[in-house]
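Hi support team,

I submitted a single chain yesterday and got back a structure, but I'm not sure I'm reading the token output correctly. Could someone confirm the output below corresponds to the sequence I sent? I've pasted both exactly as they appear in my results page.

Thanks,
R.
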Amino acid sequence: MAGVVQVSQPTTVRRTAGTSRSLAVRKFARGLPTKLLILLLLVIEVYPLFWLVSTSLKSTQEFLNTPFWSLPQSLEFQNYADAWTLGRIGVSLQNSLMVTVPSVFFILILGAMAGFALEVMIWKGRNGVLLAILCGIMVPVQMILLPLFTIYFKVGLTNTLWPLLLTYIGHGLPLTTFLMAAYFRAVPRELFESSTLDGAGILRSFFSIGLPMVRNGLLTVALLMFFSTYNDLLIALTFITSRDKSTVQVGLLNFQGEYGSVLYGPLFAGICMTVLGTLVVYLFLSRQIMQGLAGGALKG
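Hi R., thanks for writing in. Yes, this is the structure output for that exact sequence:
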């Protein structure tokens, strides 16, 4: 019996090891398509950014004589200096922030107030007002550019940042109001009723209860409105003709050299600088949104 045990024990160990390896191979084979799909998506997302950065470091001769997918033969960091000085990308960034930040702020405040009034407060005619706001969402901005340009020209606001600020706020309010009304619809009415019984007024209920309960919606709308305003070209190109007042997207059209030739190196360097700013804002707001969602889930 002892001899039988000595012979069968290595066989059992080999069978166990073979079974473990077989299970590991099967598990790897089952997860291989998912891993390949994730790798493919990662390449699709990362490669354009890598190509943009590498292209911004090319010289003018490389743009003309080499394929567009080739890597730069030498790193031309001078392109970033030219984009900042010759292309005046710093001035364009400053103008964009001077327009985008106040626009998003007023859009959020006014839109949240309107959504609170339409969804929480009870008054006659609120459904008709909400319908009118929905009609405002359906109006294309291209249809109102010419009337707005005429009004701004007669008032004397052309070639200033005021037309952009007013147009962005007016264009973003309908959608923001509709979204904020939907977020307020999910807030339990008992909270506002309890605050009213405790003596809180409308403004106190709005700022102390309403806004904290829909902070995730505010961050989402802020992210949407920021990119919509910051990346706008049509409205800025219509109302701004002075280079000193141009925004980022309009400023990228000014990278031209002698005889109208495009300065590709500084142009791509300017695009990199503008994209970097939007990526930082996106990553920051996305993290805040996820933290807010997790906090709301923990509170039940």
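A quick pointer for reading it: The radius of gyration is 29 Å. Let us know if anything else looks off.

Best,
Support desk
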